[in-house]
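User: I'm preparing a small set of examples for a lab meeting where we compare how different chains pack in three dimensions. I only have the primary sequence for this one, and I'd like the structure in token form so I can line it up with the others. Please keep the answer compact; I'll paste it straight into my notes.
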Amino acid sequence: MATETITIQIDSEAAEVFKAAPPEEQKKMEALLGLWLKEIAASDIGSLKEAMNEIGRKAQQRGLTSEILESLIDEK
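Assistant: Understood. Below is the structure token output for the 76-residue chain.
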């Protein structure tokens, strides 16, 4: 299967986890991300909305507020 390099923005903690992982683990993470992106593309919009809502709920449970989100967006 052909591969292609892309650039995505992720938080610093996730980036450090990826960078610190051995090459074999990085390949697994890349494969999982690729599968996840394909799954999202193949799902209907309702499922995507549900997934995004779930991500939002989990972020709020972990303390993410709209103010924190705004400041994170402004940093970029």
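A couple of notes for your slides: Residues 23-42 form the longest helix (20 residues). Helices lie at 12-20, 23-42, 45-61, 66-75.

User: Perfect, thanks.
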